[in-house]
């Protein structure tokens, strides 16, 4: 790595750290990250003057404002072919994009190009002028705009001149670079990344923003919206991930950028790769590992994305491992990327390379492996996005939609949704910067910049990263073990396990449980087959079960049954309060309280000190994360956060375990002295009750010392410390097992929600299953109009909506659970919000006048459930 590149990389890391700090403290983001030039000069694209896209003239409608902002056309700009090379248009540097595409706003100096309609000129005062310079997802032009920023045309030349810096080092390079920077102070800068790299380099004299900075536009991106918080940023990221298109939906063809295609065999079918038809394909005929597709790239085309089309129905013709090599203009060949493909689920576009650093005249796609060691391969098509193409910017219209599923965002008035748009643009910039240095922030790399803590702080923002998922999958593949040559054979007596479930007191050590039978049989000192739990994805049966007294031949079903039975023993789905079959987890306090959240969750038993068994549970979690199996254990978010290394707090997280305790703390903080003495005087001691019901002292002789009013904060601080750390021993053991199977770098890049999903699977809640759980009170049957509206609404819900609805009514996120539906009070107005009583699993359903009203109110209640729960809060008694 050249010294100049190293300095730029460190500059980016410094900016990442600054940005993380400012996001956490809700301060303005670095101005360098939010840089916007005051003006940008646009010229006619070279693609408009040559080739199949050649135009004899160009014409642009001119609007007084973007169409989605009630704009209207008041004129046009016409550019004849004779002026293509001399025409230029100066516009403001800020960005704006909507459903139609990307807009640019003309400066006053550019008004001279506009031919204003006579009737408009006579009746309107024109204060702005906008051009739609790039239509959104326009397949006819393959996303190549007719106008381009002039500064982008010289990027290639700039890169060549910058490469000369690489020959300098030490003081010589520093002095020359300093003089170059002084010379450039008066020159305009257009790219925010260049400003970051320049201003965050270490210098004796701190750098300033370029002279052409638009401070008003920078302030819009930098300043957080009013009443903002990091939690709002996290919800905004969820919104963006849920609503923005993937790269595969905006790709163009490749024929425009490829001069010639040469393949290893079957040359007559090579044209199928460029016909854009997913039903045709090129099929090789040769030796495994020697298949290739060689692309001769047109001059000057820098590949931003290289994509191939695959089809999982091709079976063992489907490629599973691909290398991409590029040959430079001086003949040097280098490997650009390696891609592993999931042959079990992936069909369609597969991104095999992105962001090529330079122009490669020849790019070679080498197919090294196919599914199930297949000899030949099939590729259906090739797509390329080049540096000449433009993908549309973030769509402002996204923020005009109903944000009911995102309560923190919905609180922003519709008239002020530009605040969400600008914040999203800033977060996207930050994640682009983060992606440029992500590999230097991971804890598993030999060299890191000591910035692992910054990943913890922004964990919930990581789903915006485009590189993260690829790094996760590559890390999992590189760290996977070999497929075992033989399979462990386990003998399980399910009859004894069933007897244990009926009366666990007869087997206090749970020796007859499925869990213990499996654990003992798979212990390293007893099992003949060494298990590292890092098996490849295609290894989908980890052991073979022989069920004593049963005539079952295990070809995978018995193994999965044993895993399901084990999970059910750890966290029973039954609703009764019968004794638990295993000592490793206990029912969370929320299960026995009238809280309406996470009433189906279990937590580690603070009094269980069998670390080796907790570690094995962690290993099973890791194996599920790597493979296709699920270990359905119902843990609250706080435990998943601890397992994943995310930060937790009592106020924000502990309510998922013991909401009553959190509300008690809030009441004590707000209590006046007189009321405190009446309710707690000579009653409240320096003790707290752990999740398993055991009372512990918070200080020496705390059981006999009463809490005084002036000592409330001390008491609460001690209680919070005790409760947040009560599971440390158990969670640390589980995490130890998890990290034996899954590299720490992978967990660092995942959110706790993703960890839970990959371990437990997606809890599917069907409408039919909900109907089977429903019991009607005050309704004759499900043919009642209001009940019909209810089910019509639920049918339109997503699975996440139904999970939220179930939690709103029952406090549980998964079935089975009873669901009682009764009428609201007679005094309740029609079309009101529903209420619920989670302790009795009851939904109080108002009368609705339409299915649309029912859907709207029920969805709102599902996402804002705590505020309208009809249960009596225990601290209000």
Q: In the CATH hierarchy, what is the class of the domain at 250-388?
A: Mainly Beta
Question: Radius of gyration in whole Å, from Cα?
Answer: 31 Å
In spatial order, strands of the major sheet run 10-12-17-14-15
Q: Summarize the amount of helix as a percent range.
A: 25-40%
Strand content bin: 15-25%
Structural class: alpha+beta
Number of helices: 29
Second CATH tier, the architecture of the domain at 250-388: Sandwich
Keywords: Ubl conjugation pathway
Protein name: E3 ubiquitin-protein ligase HECTD3
Domain HECT: 527-873
Pfam families: ANAPC10 (PF03256), HECT (PF00632)
Summarize this, please?
The chain is an alpha+beta fold. It is built from 29 helices and 29 strands.
Structural commentary:
The model is unreliable at 159-176, 246-252, 445-450 and 867-877 (pLDDT under 50). The protein is α+β, with helices and mostly antiparallel strands. The strands form 10 sheets. A 5-stranded antiparallel sheet has the order 10-12-17-14-15. Strands 26-27-29-28 form a 4-stranded mixed sheet. Helices cover 34% and strands 17% of the residues. Among the domains are: 39-153, no CATH class; 250-388, Jelly Rolls, CATH 2.60.120; 483-582, no CATH class; 653-726, Hect, E3 ligase catalytic domain, CATH 3.30.2160.10; 767-864, 2-Layer Sandwich (Hect, E3 ligase catalytic fold). It is globular and about 95 Å long.
List keywords for this structure.
877 residues; Jelly Rolls; five-stranded antiparallel beta sheet; four-stranded mixed beta sheet; 29 strands; E3 ubiquitin-protein ligase HECTD3; ubiquitin-protein transferase activity
């Amino acid at each position: 790595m050249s010294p100049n590149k190293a300095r730029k990389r460190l500059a980016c890391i410094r900016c990442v750290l600054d940005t993380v700090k400012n996001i956490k403290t809700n301060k303005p983001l670095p101005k360098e990250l939010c840089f916007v030039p005051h003006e940008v000069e646009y010229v006619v694209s070279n693609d408009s003057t040559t080739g199949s896209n050649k135009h004899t003239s160009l014409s642009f409608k001119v609007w007084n404002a973007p169409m989605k902002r009630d704009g209207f056309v008041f004129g046009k700009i016409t550019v004849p072919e004779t002026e293509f090379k001399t025409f230029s248009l100066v516009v403001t540097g800020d960005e704006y994009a909507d459903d139609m595409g990307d807009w640019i706003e003309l400066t006053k100096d550019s008004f001279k190009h506009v031919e204003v309609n006579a009737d408009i000129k006579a009746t309107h005062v024109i204060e702005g002028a906008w051009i739609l310079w790039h239509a959104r997802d326009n397949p006819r032009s393959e996303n190549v705009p007719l106008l381009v920023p002039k500064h982008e045309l010289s990027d290639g030349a700039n890169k060549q001149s910058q490469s000369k810096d690489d020959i300098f080092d030490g003081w010589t390079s520093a002095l020359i670079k300093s003089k170059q920077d002084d010379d450039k102070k008066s020159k305009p800068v257009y790219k925010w990344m260049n400003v970051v790299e320049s201003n965050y380099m270490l210098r004796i004299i701190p750098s300033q923003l370029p002279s052409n900075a638009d401070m008003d536009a920078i302030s819009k991106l930098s300043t957080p919206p009013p009443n903002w918080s990091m939690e709002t940023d996290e919800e905004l990221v969820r919104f963006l991930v849920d609503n923005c298109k993937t790269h595969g939906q905006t790709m163009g063809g490749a024929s425009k950028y490829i001069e010639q295609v040469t393949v290893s065999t079957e040359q007559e079918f090579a044209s199928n790769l460029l016909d854009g038809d997913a039903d045709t394909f090129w099929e090789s005929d040769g030796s495994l590992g020697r298949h290739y597709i060689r692309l001769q790239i047109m001059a000057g085309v820098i590949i931003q994305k290289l994509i191939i089309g695959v089809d999982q129905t091709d079976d063992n013709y489907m490629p599973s491992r691909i290398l991409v090599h590029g040959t430079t203009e001086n003949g040097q060949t280098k490997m650009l990327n390696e891609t592993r493909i999931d042959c079990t689920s992936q069909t369609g576009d597969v991104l095999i390379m992105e962001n090529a650093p330079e122009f490669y005249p020849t790019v070679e796609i080498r197919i090294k492996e196919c599914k199930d060691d297949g000899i030949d391969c099939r590729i259906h098509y090739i797509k390329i996005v080049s540096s000449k193409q433009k993908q549309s910017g973030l769509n402002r219209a996204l923020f005009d939609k109903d944000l009911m599923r995102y309560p923190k965002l919905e609180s922003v008035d519709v008239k002020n949704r530009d605040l969400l748009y600008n914040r999203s643009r800033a977060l996207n910039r930050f994640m682009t910067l983060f992606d440029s240095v992500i590999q230097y922030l991971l804890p598993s790399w030999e060299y890191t910049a000591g910035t692992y803590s910054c990943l913890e702080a922004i964990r919930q923002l990581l789903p915006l990263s485009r590189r993260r998922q690829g790094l996760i999958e590559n890390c999992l593949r590189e760290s996977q073990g070999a497929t075992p040559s033989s399979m462990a054979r386990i003998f399980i007596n399910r009859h004894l396990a069933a007897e244990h479930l009926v009366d666990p007191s007869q087997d206090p050590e749970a020796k007859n449980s499925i869990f213990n039978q499996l654990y003992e049989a798979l212990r390293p000192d007893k099992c003949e087959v060494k298990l590292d739990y890092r098996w490849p994805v295609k290894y989908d049966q980890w052991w073979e079960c022989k069920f004593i007294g049963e005539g079952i031949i295990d070809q995978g079903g018995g193994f999965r049954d044993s895993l399901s039975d084990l999970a059910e023993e750890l966290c029973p789905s039954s609703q009764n309060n019968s004794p638990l079959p295993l000592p490793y987890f206990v029912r969370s306090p929320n299960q026995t309280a009238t809280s309406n959240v996470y009433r189906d969750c279990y937590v580690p038993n603070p009094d269980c000190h069998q670390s080796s068994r907790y570690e094995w549970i962690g290993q099973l979690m890791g194996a599920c994360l790597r493979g296709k199996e699920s270990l359905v254990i119902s843990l609250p978010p706080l435990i998943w956060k601890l397992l994943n290394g995310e930060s937790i707090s009592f106020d924000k997280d502990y309510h998922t375990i013991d909401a009553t305790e959190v509300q008690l703390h809030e009441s004590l903080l707000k209590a006046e002295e007189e009321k405190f003495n009446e309710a707690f005087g000579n009653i409240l001691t320096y003790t707290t009750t752990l999740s398993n019901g055991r009372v512990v002292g918070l200080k020496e002789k705390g059981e006999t010392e009463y809490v005084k009013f002036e000592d409330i904060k001390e008491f609460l601080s001690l209680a919070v410390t005790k409760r947040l750390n009560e599971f440390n021993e158990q969670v640390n053991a589980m995490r130890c097992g998890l990290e034996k199977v899954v590299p720490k770098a992978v967990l660092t890049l995942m959110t706790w929600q993703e960890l839970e999903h990959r371990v437990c699977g997606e809890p599917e809640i069907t409408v039919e299953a909900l109907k089977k759980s429903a019991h009607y009170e005050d309704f004759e049957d499900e043919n009642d109009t209001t009940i019909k509206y209810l089910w019509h609404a639920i049918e339109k819900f997503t699975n996440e909506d139904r999970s939220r609805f179930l939690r709103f009514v029952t406090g549980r996120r998964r079935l089975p659970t009873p669901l009682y539906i009764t009428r609201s009070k007679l005094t309740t107005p029609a079309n009101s919000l529903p209420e619920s009583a989670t302790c009795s699993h009851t939904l109080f359903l108002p009368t609705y006048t339409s299915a649309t009203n029912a859907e709207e109110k029920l969805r709102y209640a599902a996402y804002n459930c705590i505020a309208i729960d009809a249960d009596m809060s225990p601290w209000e008694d």
